Amino acid sequence: MAVIGKTSLKGIASGRSPAWMAGLVALVSLLVLPWGRTDRSLLEFDSKLLVLNQAPWLGGVLLAVVAVLTLSSLLHLPLVQRGYALVGLGGAGFLVGVGWLVSTSVPFGVGALLVLTALLVMVGIGLSESGIIQNDPFVTSSILVCSLFVLLFIAYPLFTVLRESVLVKGVFTLNKIQSVLTSPLFISIENPYTDHSEQLLVNLTTLGLGLLGAGLAARGGLRGPRVLTGLGVGLVLGWIIGAGIFGGGAFPTSLYLALIVAPITTALGLVFALLEQRSRAVWVRRSLGVVSLLPLITPPFVFAFALIYWLGRSGIITSDLLGLKTSFLFGINGVAIAQVFAFTPVAFLILRGSVQGLNPALEEASTTLRAHPWQTFRDITWPLLRPGLAAAFLLTIIESLADFGNPMLLGGDRNFLSTEVFLALTGRYDPNEAAVYGAVLLCLVLVIFGLQRLWLGNTSFVTVTGKPGAGNFSPLPVWLERTLQTILALWGLAVVLLYFSIFFGSFVQIWGINNSFTFKHYVDLTNLGLPVLLKTAQLAFISAIIATLVGFLIAYLVSRQQFWGRGLLEVGSMLSFATPGTVMGVAYILAFNTGPWLLTGTGIIIVLALVFRNMPAAVRGVISGLSQIDKSLEEASTLLRAPSSTTLRRVLIPLLIPQLLAGLVFAFVRGMTAISQIIFLISPGNALATVLMLRWIEQGDLGRGAAMATVMILGLLTVILILFAVSRRLGRGTSLEAAV
Amino acid sequence: MQQTVSATHTGKQQAVSVKLEGIVKKFGKVTAVEKVDLELPAGKLITLLGPSGCGKTTILRMVAGLERPTEGRILFGGEDVTRLPAYLRDITMMFQSYALFPHMNVYQNIAYGLEVTRRPKQEIRERVAEVVQQVGLTGLEERPVAALSGGQQQRVALARSLVMQPRVLLFDEPLSNLDAKLRKRVREEIRDLQQELGITSLYVTHDQEEAMAISDLVVLMNKGVIEQQGDPRTLYTRPVSRFAADFIGRANFFEGHYSAGHIQVAGYQQPYQQEGISGKVTVMVRPEALKVHLSGDGLDGTIHHVSFLGSSTEFSVDTPVGRLEGVVAGDAPELPGRGERVKVQFAPQGTFLLPA
Ligand SMILES: Nc1ncnc2c1ncn2[C@@H]1O[C@H](COP(=O)(O)OP(=O)(O)OP(=O)(O)O)[C@@H](O)[C@H]1O
Ligand SMILES: [Mg+2]
């Protein structure tokens, strides 16, 4: 890095600075690349857009600053003084540049992007060389650049959502919030067309469950806070259930749905996790590996789609077998069924971790103390499983709230929060209303994350996945194993039927009506869908690479470096993981639609949305990988005179190849199957496969949609199998948990 | 990404002295190191000795630059390096875990530092060959490090440090993963190499025998402060506190009185010379200084037990000031047996008085 000239042992204090490289980039960008844009394309080039033509004084200032800094970096000057200059002048240049963009609202161009990033890098190098910050130049610049990205592409959009919900046409007002929250789309309890009072029923349910909760809490002794908590929880649950059943509107419906789905999913997940660990039958244990693959290869609403084949108005079971003409599937029922199928594997992956973290020695100890198996379960196993169960439960609630595709397809006449965000923006053209819905959804999710913190203390979703302990577990009682196996078999059968129907549906004229074999849908797909599919793969791939790199860097910074604001960077980067996709989507639309950060209508915004959506998975994967690498390896490398960029390249990256590869593949797969965050962002020329598929299905082109789904599923399966093969060749396993 | 460090590797490094001035290190609320002043003379091997958690590793890491002191300055031969980043300090360190790069073989591990600093290929080969021979790893260059024994890994780590010809060499309990026999051999090798190369070395251990065996200077630490420093002999014979006496070797402690060139213990008087102390004292007696006789002058005692350990014989004796432990070399048939009444005396070389 630094080219140090040491004249004596005392002479460490002067030399060149690597900042010249960034300086050169900035210089060239200033001279030949466009500073601002007139339209959406970032590739636009016109000499009028050069900074010296667009804003001569700004260009002059920046050129002077960059030239001075670059020159001084090339000379042997005292490190500390030049460091201060880099920080001061570079920082000033950065602020002036950003200030100009913000105040004139001219969309930034490639040149501005490069110049500003380069200036930030120079500031970072300066901070390090002046000794203001102890980390080395590479680390300091990385911290600054990563923080800027997180700020601009995660914090700023989310802030925009909150801002737009109270700022209508530039005027601060709470009216929008009020009108949305009182609209029947959001909550409606009383139905004027029935002769009973829904409000009364809801109140009764609320009260009933509240009392029940208090009673249950009081059973363990009459302690005030406990009983009050019981009462509170009961009241909330009672209201949600009551309003969900008797009332309507997006708010109670979404919550009610989540309350149905989460316990079922968690229970199924636990069943599968226990079976995988303790079943006597090999086939059972084997087949569960496949279960964990499903969420990766299945676009989120494919189960909903397949359910239409089986249970829809002309579904095989409902119509052909039972002779019903029912639309029971369209509404909460259908969405709940589809979500159970979609999220059970997720719960399974989480619970698998905590079940494997159980220590057989504990159970053996308990058994040798003559405890009844039931007692062992109650006193030993259950308390250890509880954090995992809570994590799975809360995560499925979040997934259910955030789910977009299933409610979109099966929601029927019910409203859901995540679809309302979308419909408000694209159907009612009301960005402020969309922002209010987004803010509500965001708050709900953050509250649930908060609850998780409260409940589980600091054990995060990551740490509850433990390591397999040694020893043997006592097998399950036979009757229990039989029951669980039956559940698994039924679930498996249903999943097979669902996949089969997609596959079959893609080869017949019109499913259920005209079952004659045809290639028609694949021909259509080739004409209409193939370019889109390729475009999607391209965007997903680019985003996967960026997400993995940025994720790796952030993981390295937060887990291996000490600096002020480290916690903020970590929380910031995880925020996009917690944020429901639709909220992120609407946030991007609102934040990047005009002004200096204009990006909508380009492929870049899709890539960015995918990057910041999928990066947290890479961050967590790398953090867990890093936790297995002794920190002294890096310290040894440092003391052998390697700057941290070299340590990363020569020590950490080679050791983390499996994690990085897995991160890359998972980011790609998730990018391919994403829908909620990008459905807002598509533009002509940037259509995406999942969105197109959703549109086809909604239009009734089921066969074509099925063909697309089949191609995607098989393609993604291939990609993942290749990953497994490669990581087996590398001799190191790949953990699926990182992909959840 | 180029680094040229001129005038550094043209020859053997000149040994440099290391000075810590008023060093304080806090981790949040925990004070790991409190006001430490320390001078490591050039070319010497200094041990930091002390119980677990007393701040040895923290001091080492601050010298290395892996940790920045909360207060105070660190000087290398007069140059203030407090703010100099670790990778520019010209220091290497041997880690307890060895910290060998698992994806590289022996040669690559040793050559790593030279490659990173862009030494010419030819020089790298020569210097690696030289240290490989010095530490006795010849023939193992192509082995992956995972396929080495603990002792061999240890040598690779040592070679990797030495090849950089550092200004200062740091060791953090480098031997604690070796078995007892090997530990002894390797520590002698380390000492020999260090003396031969004359590198200023700072060595952390909590094993007092190891510290005594290899150091020019021992720095005894307790709870973040320096308890005592000096050469091993001084520390053993002239401890400044009960903690120091106890930590370095074994010792008996009991109450006594000192005046006019005589120690008085429970009615027994013995001539003894020590400056600067008088009145009530704590008497420290090393086990080998405890002499028992069947007759003559001495403190009254009864032999409690005797056990023969091969190269030495240990015994304990009950006296009015409590049970005292003693040791004599070899088999000692003349030693009184269990239950016999004896007179106990204290040999002056192993006796020292501390303020009560
Ligand atoms: N990174 C850290 N964060 C917080 N506290 C720390 C950190 N490193 C060390 N400490 C604390 O500082 C004190 C001194 O630790 P240090 O590692 O220097 O002890 P040590 O003398 O090397 O002990 P040992 O012989 O067990 O290695 C301990 O109380 C330790 O808990
Ligand atoms: Mg230590």
UniProtKB/TrEMBL annotation, chain A:
The chain crosses the membrane at residues 20-37, 57-77, 84-102, 108-127, 139-159, 200-218, 230-249, 255-275, 287-310, 330-351, 384-402, 434-451, 488-512, 532-559, 597-615, 651-669, 675-694, 706-726. InterPro entries: MetI-like (IPR000515), MetI-like_sf (IPR035906). One of its GO terms (biological process) is transmembrane transport. One of its GO terms (cellular component) is plasma membrane. It is a multi-pass membrane protein. It comes from the Bacteria. Keywords: Membrane, Transmembrane, Transmembrane helix, Transport. Pfam families: BPD_transp_1 (PF00528). The keyword Nucleotide-binding does not apply. Residues 251-452, 533-725 form the ABC transmembrane type-1 domain. Gene3D superfamilies: MetI-like. PROSITE patterns: ABC_TM1. It is found in: Cell membrane; Membrane. The keyword Transmembrane helix applies. Belongs to the binding-protein-dependent transport system permease family. This is ABC transmembrane type-1 domain-containing protein. It comes from Meiothermus hypogaeus NBRC 106114.
UniProtKB/TrEMBL annotation, chain B:
One of its GO terms (molecular function) is ATP hydrolysis activity. One of its GO terms (cellular component) is ATP-binding cassette (ABC) transporter complex. The keyword Transmembrane helix does not apply. InterPro entries: AAA+_ATPase (IPR003593), ABC_SmlMolc_Importer (IPR050093), ABC_transporter-like_ATP-bd (IPR003439), ABC_transporter-like_CS (IPR017871), Mo/tungstate-bd_C_term_dom (IPR008995), P-loop_NTPase (IPR027417), Transp-assoc_OB_typ2 (IPR013611). SMART domains: AAA. Pfam families: ABC_tran, TOBE_2. Keywords: ATP-binding, Nucleotide-binding, Transport. Residues 18-248 form the ABC transporter domain. One of its GO terms (biological process) is quaternary ammonium group transport. The keyword Nucleotide-binding applies. Transmembrane segments: none annotated. PANTHER family: SPERMIDINE/PUTRESCINE IMPORT ATP-BINDING PROTEIN POTA, SPERMIDINE_PUTRESCINE IMPORT ATP-BINDING PROTEIN POTA. This is Fe(3+) ions import ATP-binding protein FbpC. The lineage of its organism: Bacteria, Thermotogati, Deinococcota, Deinococci, Thermales.
